[in-house]
Amino acid sequence: MTRLSFFMLAVLLAIAATAQTIFPARIDAPAEFNTGKVHISVLSSSERQMTTNFLFERGSRNSWHYHPNATQVLMVLSGEAYYQEEGKPKQLLRKGDVVTTAPNVRHWNGATPWSDCECMTISDIVPDEQHAVQLRKVTDEEFTSPITHESMIVRLAEIEVYPEYLTEYLACANEVDRLSVEREPGVICLYPMQSTEDSTQIRILEIYASNEAYQQHLQTEHFQKYKQGTLHMVKSLKLPTMQPLDPETMKLIFTKQR
Description:
This protein is α+β, with helices and mostly antiparallel strands. The chain has six helices and 17 strands. The strands form four sheets. Strands 1, 3, 4, 7, 8, 9, 10 and 11 form an eight-stranded antiparallel sheet that branches. Strands 13, 14, 15, 16 and 17 form a five-stranded antiparallel sheet that branches. The radius of gyration is 22 Å and the shape is elongated. The two termini are 39 Å apart. Residues 1-19 have low confidence and may be disordered.
């Protein structure tokens, strides 16, 4: 390989490395208040507000902390993240998700075990107050706890499709299931299946984090497109709500997401 080729390869690798983040995070966050590798960069700061970019490498997170009398907005720019407020279940966040943390609420956030995550925060600056009060580190048990809680909804949708619309219906179902899981943190699982004995018999395992998540799902543009577009294709539909027989074992399923 010529020297020029080596040079071009080096340039391309440098560009690729730079492109991994939208706003390059230049400073390593202090290990005293973080677990794993966390990189930060203050993008702007004024007397009233500060905007910060965070790059959490997979498995890393900050400590429990709160912002005295200040509101903070967290936006996920890439990857998948965890976010948790004290006394509430842990949430899974994806690219495009936005969370507003109220003043004085204890919380933490970081990357999932299987994905780096880039986030941006916009924080209020309150005169004569610290930006953040650092508390204890997030334990491994807290970090790996399953993203489930008692109000989780489990359904097994039982659908029969008219044979002449089967191919068209399957395309619609696959699209809405993919978009729902990708875009909605509250949609834990939408798993479509087709009977090997009768191809018109479709079953979809549906798991939602809560009734609120389920109701929000019903209002999304992609679900409404699916619902209205397939009314004439569906011969019958049953939506029984199921009760897990062994909730503790079921929780273990979600620790294997990585």
